[in-house]
């Protein structure tokens, strides 16, 4: 039995951000098909606040954190392609395999299909900031929406981490038009957007900036009234991809409207499908790392906070005052 301990930020019971505290916990060991990682940076996203608060039927004690970068510490049985000391990025949200997460810690364990090498010399801060959002955006655009150069893409919540990354990724594919939807300040939208509209004026603005007021793809991590408005403006054969419900207002879709207007509604939860489609995650993560390493996916440099500030970062995310992306540095 390994008696070694590490510092980790977690909760013993689900609760508010103030319950997230740093303590010593046992160092996890990789099992078959897994690798151990000495974590350099752990990304923080809104989904982590949901893990911490008990929004999902998970376990306690819980260490959040579903994206990390660092170096391989140990290699489990039946793993090829990784060596100790190698720089890697990994996703820790393959909950279908059993317990995972654990990124807010000095050591994390990942399944080898959810990890990929990072070339030497690449800024791990930028890679960390792009792991979850980049993989989600890649799969949403490439595998679910299957966008092409003729598509007009509408991205809801474009000032958020996932929305911003998806807009930048859509511009690379490239889409004909990338329309970002913001709550108030258009200046906060990514430069990759060809057009930026304020949420309250979405319907009128789509009539103004598109030939017929419609779009081909909706990327929807928001939910609520925006979801309904965006769906109403989806063109025939359009694809509405649901990536979340940040507004906590789950608006249903009409089966008749979907059928009669010849539209498609799809959902994507990387955490829910990773264990069923591992190759999809591996390919997406490898692509994202390559795009960041070559400077093609130009993700903003994230804010960096020490591990002990994890609770403050969660508070800022919940208050909508956080930067687009924050990563935690390990002690």
UniProtKB/TrEMBL annotation:
This is Enoyl reductase (ER) domain-containing protein. SUPFAM superfamilies: GroES-like, NAD(P)-binding Rossmann-fold domains. InterPro entries: ADH-like_C, ADH-like_N, ER, GroES-like_sf, NAD(P)-bd_dom_sf, Zn-ADH-like_protein. Residues 15-328 form the Enoyl reductase (ER) domain. It comes from Streptomyces antnestii. One of its GO terms (molecular function) is oxidoreductase activity. It holds the Pfam family ADH_zinc_N.
């Amino acid at each position: 039995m390994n008696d070694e301990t590490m510092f980790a930020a977690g909760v013993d019971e689900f609760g508010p951000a103030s319950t997230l505290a740093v303590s010593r916990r046992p160092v996890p060991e990789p099992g078959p098909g897994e690798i151990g990682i000495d974590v350099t940076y752990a990304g923080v996203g809104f989904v982590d606040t949901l893990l911490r608060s008990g929004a999902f039927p998970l376990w306690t004690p819980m260490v959040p954190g579903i994206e990390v970068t660092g170096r391989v510490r140990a290699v489990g049985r039946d793993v090829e392609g990784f060596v100790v000391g190698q720089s890697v990025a990994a996703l820790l949200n393959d909950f279908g395999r059993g317990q995972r997460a654990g990124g807010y810690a000095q050591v994390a364990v990942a399944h080898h299909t959810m990890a990929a090498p990072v070339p030497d010399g690449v800024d791990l801060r930028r890679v960390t900031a792009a792991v979850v959002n980049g993989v989600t955006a890649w799969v949403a655009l490439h595998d679910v929406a299957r966008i092409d150069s003729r598509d007009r893409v509408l991205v809801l919540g474009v000032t958020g981490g996932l929305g911003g990354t998806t807009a930048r990724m859509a511009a690379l594919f490239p889409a004909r038009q990338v329309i970002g939807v913001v709550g108030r300040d258009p200046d906060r939208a990514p430069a990759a957007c060809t057009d930026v509209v304020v949420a309250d004026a979405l319907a009128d603005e789509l009539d103004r900036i598109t030939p017929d007021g419609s779009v081909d793809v909706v990327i929807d991590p928001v939910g609520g009234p925006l979801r309904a408005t965006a769906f109403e403006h989806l063109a025939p054969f359009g694809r509405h991809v649901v990536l979340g419900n940040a507004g906590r207002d789950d608006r249903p879709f009409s089966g008749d409207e979907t059928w009669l207007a010849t539209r498609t509604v799809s959902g994507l939860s990387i955490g829910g499908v990773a264990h069923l489609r591992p190759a999809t995650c591996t390919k997406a993560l490898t692509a994202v790392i390559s795009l960041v390493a070559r400077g093609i996916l130009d993700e903003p440099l994230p804010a960096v906070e020490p591990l002990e500030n994890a609770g403050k970062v969660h508070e800022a995310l919940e208050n909508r005052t956080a930067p687009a992306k924050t990563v935690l540095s390990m002690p």
